[in-house]
Amino acid sequence: MSVIPSQAKSKQLRACLLCSIVQHPMDFRKNGCPNCEELMQMKGSPDRINICTTTYFDGIIAVIDPESSWVARWQRTSKYVRGMYAVRVKGRVPEDIETELENRGIKYRPRDQTDQD
What we know:
Herpes Virus-1, 18% strand, three-stranded antiparallel β-sheet
């Protein structure tokens, strides 16, 4: 049985600014981001967690089978691990990460839905 976070508990959750996965700060600290740790480097770093995640997000989606979920495709999370994802995340990744994405030929798309196709 899955538990939906209560509003009080959800205030403790944080969403990754790059992939929008929602986790408790201790999970980011212990394991980093399961989708983009290579870029975000949050594992073991409270400072990186504070600048690479946010508590300002709207809605939570449970993604169980990312590859076959139309919602995951719509949210651009179909290539990510299963988990809880924010519908909309307010904020931007740090400038150094945005530059690294550009260097890798990846276009950064903020997760606040301001750039919908």
